[in-house]
Each structure stands twice: as structure tokens, then as C-alpha cells.
Amino acid sequence: MSSTAAVAPPAIAARSINPWVIAAAVVVPTFMEVLDTTIANVALRYIAGGLSAAVIDSEWVITSYLAANAIVLPLSGWLAAHLGRRNYFLLSIAIFTISSGLCGMSTSLTQLIVFRVLQGLAGGGLQPCTQGVLLDTFPPEKQGAAMTVFGIAALIAPILGPTLGGYITDNYSWRWIFYINVPMGVVALAASYYLLEDPDYLKRERAELLRRPVHFDTWGLVLLATVMISWEVVLSKGQQWDWFGDPFGRVQTLTVLFVGSLVGLIYHELRIASPVVDLRPLADRNFAVASLVIFCAFGVLYAISTSLPGLLQSLFGYDATSSGLVMSPSGFFSVMLLPIVGLALGRGVDARWLIITGLLVMGAGCYWMAIMNLQISPFQVVWPRVVTISGLSLIFAPISVAAYMYTPQHLRGAAVGLFSLLRNEGGSVGTSLAQTIHERRDQFHALRLGESLDPFNPAVRDFTDRAQAYFLQQTGDPEASQEMAVEMLALLREQQSSALAYFDVFWLAGVLALVLVVFVFFMKRSVAEKGAHLAAE
Asked: What are the residues whose beta carbons fall under 8 Å from the beta carbon of 491, sequence distance 6 or more?
């Protein structure tokens, strides 16, 4: 059966409920879950201090959540099919809300990590279920608008996470970054309980599954857990452990585990009838290319979203709240742009051209950030960031429409889970690579700048003489003033090398965004209107 013939119109719920009301109800818990991937990043030092733990150990608060989240995302299609999507969604919201409250009440780092694992396991089902509900609630010609609503949660939440986390931590307590999920979760649970109903095709699918004996893919789950845990730990701790130079062999061992388990997972899942991770959606060209593009695009998003606060706080002296305020206008412009993109999709604009435009805009914004310097004002940081995130806003809804346009309905649950997993993992990879690139390029630039800083360089001598004269006036000690002049020169070198390293991260992110344009041309025509998929290549 061809992919075009396999695509059926989505089953709309029998009850007469405005689809926008349903969209609002399901997007709230997704926003909470995505927000929790970044909101705790700026609070790690406060968490460590509050729980009497080492700062470096507090990083497990992030790693444990991401690993647990990554395990459940590809499982979500299987769980939704067997439990019923509505039941699974409600269960996920309830456990996520309870575990969020428990995170806030933790009295030790171990407790917090355990509750974060529980939070991640519950939250992993929220994104795929939300997308599935939106795809089934809205007709094909309005799915661009539906993905726009989802984009507000999946795109804006990681942008606002550091800002909100910094404000809460600076003004209240780190515990409130978890407590704020509780009232929102209660409201989302009540609304979803009343509004949601599984479409007929899911009810038939579940009834058919209940008539059969349950054959759970235990080996698939074991291999998946091994893949995701080893992957997340390597990404989180790789730079700290010196990657493949790790003298204790931790990175090497985890990498072997990851590669071996991944190969075993692919081989195993393609050979059984009921895989826990269904890889068949990747056979569709549109879905495969869209997955690659969203993986890399979110890598760019997280790379610049973690690097820019580091630049502002380490070299400009901003606190967490101030750096967040500089970054937050991009979220406002993204929210304004998303409905325009949804309207364009609804009027028959090919999603591929919007994706290409977004990648070009994103690349331009990254290049703009790459040519900054240490004498810029806050507004000279705001606008490059706005341009970059606006490019991602142009991509998000179109890439979701293009990804699922040719996916058969019975594979939609698996496709949504895989797509969400790759989007999240792109963020993890982007964060890790940004940290690694910055540290390596910082060392490179420090060495290169140091090549010219010798006593025989007239510029160096002029600088140290003037600095020594200044410090001599302040201290009256010739030897101390000379040492202070040399230390000042060394500090300037460190500042410049660190700044250049950050700018290298932005430049490489821009190059990646532009390279992705080539892959978009391999996608099929993607127009979100009735019957459009039948006219595709």
C-alpha cells in the first residue's frame, strides 16, 4: 500500500466541543513538561546549596530528568495504544503533578533525583499525546494552526525556562520552580478529564489489542533504557570526564554500551510484530528528513540558549534575572509569529518553503550573534536573539505538518513519539556540544592570543607601562603595581578568548542551520489542505 493511500482523514471526536478549547487544555501540561527541561538549569547552584550537595553533583537533577523522559517518549505510542490515549494522558498529568510537588519538598539531593526520574517518566507521554490529540481534533487544512498551538508550548517553554527559573530563584526559592507545576497540573487534569475522548480508530485499535494476549517487548525496553541512559550520561558528563580521554574509561564504556545497544535495538525492533519502539515511520522520506531537521534545529536552539546566558553572566556581569530579561523578548516575537505561520499553512503555502525561510533566518541570526563584541549594549544582544528564534518559529509548525502528512494513521502514535524524542535529544546534543566547543575553542584562542603577548611587543609594553603607572598611583608599591598590570593583561586575554569561543559556538550553529536547507529539498510537497497529499510526488 502506498503512503498516500494509507493516509486517512483524522477521526474527529463525536462530541461537539470547540477544537480550540481542547487544544488549550492539552497544551498546558505539555508546556509544563517542556518548561521543566530548562527551568532548573539556572538554579543548580541554589539547589546544591539548599541540599548541602556539591554543585557538580546537582547536574544529575537535569540528566536524570532527560534520561527518564527519553526512555518514555518512544514508548508513548505503545502505552497509548494499550491503555487508551486519554487514560494515558490523564495518568501522565497526575503523576507529573504529584512528582513535581515531591521535587519541591525534597530534603536531599538523592530524593530530588528520584522524584525527577518519576517526573521525567510521567512527562515523557505528554508531548506525543498532545500532538496526537491535536492531529485528530483538527482537519487536515487546519493542522498548521494546530501545530502552531503546540509550538507555543514546545518552542516557547525552553526559551522562557531560564528566564522564569532565574526570576523565581533570585526572588523566591528554587523549590518554587517545581511547586508552580502543581496548580497548573490540577487545572490541566480537570480540563482534560472533561474534554478528551479517544477517537473511534483508537477505540477500535485498543479493543483489538485487548482481545489478543499481551506480548510485551521486554528486550526492546531493556535495550531502549540502556541506549538512552548511556547517551544522556555521556552528553551530560562527557566534557567533565574529558570525553574519550577519560582515564577511568567511563565515557568509553558508556559509548560502547550505547552503540551496541542501539544496533541491537534496531535489529530487534525490526524483526518482531509488536515492537515497543516502532521504527517504521522512518521509512517515509518526509518523516525521516523532518526528524533530522528538527533534531538539528533544536540543537541550534539549545546551543545558543545555554551559551548566551553564559556569555552575559561571565563576561558582562549580568545576574540570572537580567540575562533572562535580555533573552525573553525573543519569546514574545515568537508567539506573535506563530499564528502568522499557521495562517500561511492554512492558505496552502508549501511547508518546505517556510522551513527553508526559517533556516535561512536562523542562520542569519546566529551569524549576527557571532560578530558581537564585549562593548555591546543589551539591545544589541536582544535583536540577534529575536532574529534567531523567529527563524525557529518559522520552522516549527511547518516541519510538524510535513512530518506527519504522509504517515499512515495507524503509525501516527509511534511517529509522534519518535519525533518528540528526536526533538528533545537534539536539545541535549546541542547543549553538550556547545559546552565542549566553548571550552576547546577557549583554550585555542587563549594560546593564539598569548603568542603575541611578549615583553618585546611595543603594544604590550605600552599597555603594561600605563597600567603600572595607574596602579602605582593607587598602591604606591612599584613591584605590586607591576604584578597587577601583568594580571590585568592576563585577565583581558581570558575575557577575549572566552568571548571568541562563545562567538565560535554561534558561528557553527549558523553554519549548521544553513546546511540543513539542502536536506529540505529531499522532502515531498507538503501543503496542509484537503487532498493535498494526493497531489504530491
From this structure: none
In angstroms, the CA 8 to CA 6 distance is 6
User: Which residues lie closer than 8 Å to 277 by C-beta, 6 or more apart?
Assistant: 74, 75, 78, 220, 224, 265, 269, 414, 417, 418
- Single pTM value for the model: 0.78
Task: Classify residue 270 by its DSSP letter.
Answer: T
pLDDT over 50 at 6, yes or no: no
- Please spell the DSSP secondary structure of 372-405, one letter per residue: --TT--THHHHHHHHHHHHHHHHHHHHHHHHHHT
Task: Render pLDDT for 391-408 as a digit per residue (tens, 0 to 9).
Answer: 988 888 888 888 888 888
Q: What is the largest CA-CA distance in the chain?
A: 91
Count of all residues that appear for the chain in the document: 537
DSSP per position, 440-478: HHHHHHHHHHHTT-STT-HHHHHHHHHHHHHHHHHH--H
Question: How many of the other CB atoms lie within 10 Å of CB of 511?
Answer: 15
Average pLDDT of every residue of the chain: 82
Angle ∠(366,368,370) on CA atoms, nearest 5? 70
Contact at 8 Å (CB) between 36 and 166?
A: no
Return d(Cα 343, Cα 358) in angstroms, integer: 16
Copy the grid coordinates of residue 473.
598611583
Instruction: Calculate ∠ Cα 362-368-369, nearest 5°.
Output: 95
The DSSP annotation for 502-522 comes to HHHHHHHHHHHHHHHHHHHTT
Q: Is the dihedral of CA 279, 285, 288, 291 positive or negative?
A: negative
In angstroms, rounded to a whole number, what is the distance separating the alpha carbons of residues 99 and 181?
10
Instruction: Report the 10 Å Cβ neighbour count for 250.
Output: 15
Continuous segment of H or E residues that includes residue 261: helix 250-269
Rounded Cα gap, residues 145 and 348, in angstroms: 12
Of the candidates 278, 283, 205, 30, the one whose C-alpha atom is nearest the C-alpha of residue 134 is 30
- State the DSSP code for 407: S
Q: What are the backbone dihedrals phi and psi of residue 319, each rounded to the nearest 5 degrees, phi first?
A: -90, 180
Q: Is the pLDDT of residue 159 over 90?
A: no
